């Protein structure tokens, strides 16, 4: 059986090997609204403020149409991601308003109506991992998801969904 090789320790990027000031940083809410972003983000996404700081709305403005290679494919990916988020937040008034606003745009409607992806509600999740939290009696139920970050197979993104009542103090 072949063994998967791990990345060489010295080949991983660190804060000392990455170029200072050239790393895009942003915090997004689930509806793709930028809560905070650095100068690099705003340089890469000009006029984001005119789209209410929402990445999906920004994607439908002129700067990305002319700056993003493969704009149509990127738009489809964002629409698919938005569909999955809306499965969870479909009753949120902000989500409903965002969809109403986006549907006014012909490119969004075409991408939304043209994608075969559908979201299934109440789909059973895998059984979560249960962790003991020091100082509490109830375990924390945690579902972890691990994905590669874009084309860089040496960087993994890990996020978890947890039951908040289990960690409330």
UniProtKB/TrEMBL annotation:
Q: Where is the MmyB-like transcription regulator ligand binding domain?
A: 28-119
Q: Which Gene3D superfamilies match?
A: 3.30.450.180
Q: Can you name this protein?
A: MmyB-like transcription regulator ligand binding domain-containing protein
From which source organism is this entry? Nocardia fluminea
């Amino acid at each position: 059986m072949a063994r998967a090789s791990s990345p060489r320790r010295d080949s991983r990027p660190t804060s000392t090997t990455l170029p200072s000031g050239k790393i895009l940083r942003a915090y997004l809410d689930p509806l793709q609204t930028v809560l905070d972003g650095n100068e690099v983000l705003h340089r890469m996404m000009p006029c984001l403020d005119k789209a209410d700081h929402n990445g999906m709305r920004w994607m439908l403005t002129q700067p990305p149409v002319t700056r993003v290679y493969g704009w149509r494919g990127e738009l489809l990916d964002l629409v698919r991601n938005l569909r999955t988020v809306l499965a969870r937040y479909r009753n949120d008034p902000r989500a409903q308003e965002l969809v109403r606003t986006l549907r006014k745009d012909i490119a969004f409607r075409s991408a939304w109506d043209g994608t075969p992806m559908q979201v299934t509600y109440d789909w059973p999740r895998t059984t979560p991992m249960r962790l003991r939290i020091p100082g509490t009696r109830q375990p924390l139920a945690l579902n972890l998801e691990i994905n590669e970050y874009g084309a860089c197979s040496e960087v993994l993104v890990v996020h978890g969904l947890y039951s908040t009542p289990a960690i409330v103090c």
